[in-house]
Amino acid sequence: MRTMLTILLCSAALFAADPIRRAPGFSLMDSNGQLHDLADYRGRVVILEFMQTTCPHCAAFAPILQQIQQKYGDRIAILAVTDPPDNPNTMAAYVAGHKVTYPVVLDCGQAAYSYVRSRTLSFPHVYLIDGAGMIVGDYEYGPLTSDVFEGKALFLEIDRLLAGTASQKTRK
Prior knowledge:
Layout: H1 2-16, E1 21-22, E2 27-30, E3 35-37, E4 45-51, H2 56-72, E5 76-82, H3 88-98, E6 104-106, H4 110-115, E7 125-129, E8 134-140, H5 146-150, H6 153-163, E9 170-171
Parallel strand pairs: 4-5, 5-6, 8-9
Antiparallel strand pairs: 1-8, 2-3, 2-6, 4-7, 7-8
């Protein structure tokens, strides 16, 4: 009986763990008709943001992403992914209105579905992907992640990844 209980507890702990997983691949088009394939960014840290052009939190997060892009340059890549009801026109207006210089691409839901593990997708939702293509950070907007979306926590995570010290997945 004790052995069976131990096996059940170990199994529960194993299945409850959220292991590092490979970032699902995709190739999506931006409002200019250019394709962006996640595989093209292999070897660099990627910040993958799922967002909507009408989301006020996404608009507030855009300047932080711009600061990240300015600080780290070509060592990182930023991709923002929108889903319907966004379309090429709303994407172009968002890019122009917020002076976004990183790619904003349009998904029809398939890429979002392959990333999100919960029933709902709240915006913004950010995945931090290491140079080997593994998801090492998963940040959903909320009260516990305000420093990621409004402060410097994402900078610290990127610094750790670029320094090669990020050995375990961070979940905020």
